[in-house]
Fold this sequence. Notes:
By secondary structure, this protein is α/β, with parallel strands linked by helices. The protein has two domains: 2-58, no CATH class; 62-294, Rossmann fold (3-Layer(aba) Sandwich). The chain contains ten helices and twelve strands. The protein has helices spanning 62-82, 85-98, 103-110, 119-124, 138-146, 160-172, 209-218, 235-244, 251-260, 274-279, and strands at residues 2-8, 11-19, 35-37, 43-48, 51-58, 128-132, 152-157, 177-181, 196-200, 225-231, 263-270, 280-287. Strands 8-7-6-9-10-12-11 form a seven-stranded mixed sheet, sandwiched between helices. The chain is globular, with a radius of gyration of 22 Å.
Amino acid sequence: MWRKKLSKTSSQLTIKCSRSKQSNINDFPKLRIGYHKLKIMEAMEWTIGWWRVSLQRVYPTATQLSQTYDKAALGWHEHLRLLGHCHAYRQMWKSLKDADILPDWQDNLTGTLKSFSRRKKLLREPLTICDCGIGTAAFSLAFAQTINPTTHITGVDISSGMLEIAHQKLSQTNINHQICQSDVRSLPFADECFDGVISAHVLEHLPNPEQGLKEIVRVLRPGSPLILAVTQCNLLGRLIQWHWGNRCFSQKEVSDLMYKAGLTNIQCFPFPMGLTRLMSFVCIGFRSSMNSTCLSRFE
């Protein structure tokens, strides 16, 4: 029996070979291949003759993930800009605004709230948004610039390097904010303390996405939305997965995870344009019950 680890950036694959206990000597000349795939490509297993070969995914630790993104932090924002992600994020928020999918947030900006019990509180307090996995704040910047410039952004990331750049970018644009180095699986905030949570390409790095989403939903106020940008399963998604060690999702997988985490009125849709449209999609869900007329699907 032997075991070998192969690593690529932050991803790891564990290959394990073991002798198969076969009793029929007549099977020896034959090549027997059995294939087993677990949920979301967690493991693969083959039986070849007398040998069983398994390939199992090993997720990076929090320390490994932090170190990987610390190294990438300095040029990360420019990388996103050159790939068109920053522009795509702004267009996505504009589409949400035009489709009236976020009426609470938009009405808070104009001061014309209609039927929300928190009307008075919202009118005198800024909108509070938590960006889980803020990176260099590209997603938050696009939100504040497009939806509500008076928003207070709380940025959470496991990488201190990313947080440093995020602080610089948000300060340069005069966006009210605070940053916090933390794992999104254990957020240092009270229950039901944010008007919304946004998160771009974080779900893909969680060993247990359902558990991570439940922790994110915990800090959402009732009726508040969670907006996720997620890497989709296609050729580009697989290339990103191999390099960064993340996973890919289908829209159905993300919808199911959001439902299990306690979200309702779940919608998934593509980014409006560019390379980002080919690589990712967006899902939105609301904590607890909310008038379904506040939502309309758009593409």
